[in-house]
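hey can u check if this looks right to u? its 362 residues, i copy pasted from the old doc so theres a chance i mangled smth
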Amino acid sequence: MQFKEIKIADLKEFLNSELYLSSKNIPITKQRALSQFANPRADKDAIALLIAINNNNEIIGFIGALPEKIPNISAKLTWNSCWWIDPNNGKQVAIPLFLKFLKNWNNLVMFRDLTDKTEQIIFRLNLFKKVKKLTGYRYFLRLNIAKILINKNKNFKYIKPVLQFVDFIFNKGFSLKNKSFLKPKNILFTANKIDKIDEESEKFILQNNKNELFKRSKKELNWILKQPWICSKSHKDANQFYYFSDVSAVFKNYVYKIYSNRTLVAVLFLTNNNGLVKVPYVYFLNGKESVVLAFLYQFLLHEKASSFFVINPKLQIAIEKNKNPFWHKKKIRKDFVVSKKLAALLPEKFTFQDGEGDFVFT
């Protein structure tokens, strides 16, 4: 067995290598590789992939890195963006692969959304700690029991028309109930959709992200807009398998500037992944939550979104205190986990956007 390191600078070349083209299980998709190559916070000599290869030249495990920088911290650090082990042939390399990954990044590693198994492994090493608990809510606007039940049990496909009819009836009722949110009363605003972060929106963002840990600017946000990881059509060979998300029927990024009384009061970065709308980056003036939500409700209904996810606490409070278009909600807890070595470098207090890590890409 051997480990192979792929640097940011070598990602394009790796896509054309014999190892990549002949592998059944690929460690990165074309769209992710090209996006990683363009990451403005990644040094070209940073290691983006660590791959375990057996004696038959087969990939039996890999770990992905998403290089990151935190203002006022000079050390090079990374997010873990994926960790896959071949369930049949790779179990013995899981820990050696991870320890090699930690060594490559000098133990300056961050995680989000750990699986139970991954959490057990990394905390057993006594090298990591949870530094922030993130509480999000997924709010539901539409019913989709046909898809949910069929995904759980294929036998439901025999009554799919009945289930779809139930969805249709309920969703028709929800649409009628929520018509008032399409034309909000007493809340006047103008929403301008933009293709990229411009000077006005960047100035506004920088004025409203001073307490954030990562402090995104125009350069990073425009990279994310231009280089998504999920595409509507796969760029990989049909015979190749990628364990993590890469294709969706619908995946779109949006950026809106919201004005009230001709004053810019909010900049919103939104994603729509097949009906699930998220707000990975949101910046707004204090007291303008009602304006932001008036726009968001209008946007969600125009998009025919099935659900909406948000972790911003101010928006969560405003949603709960006022009339909203949702019929159900689900609490989702996520932890921000970092190595103890990195935790010692972090400020005592900071705010956190939902898009951090690779969440904005999925």
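The chain has twelve helices and twelve strands.
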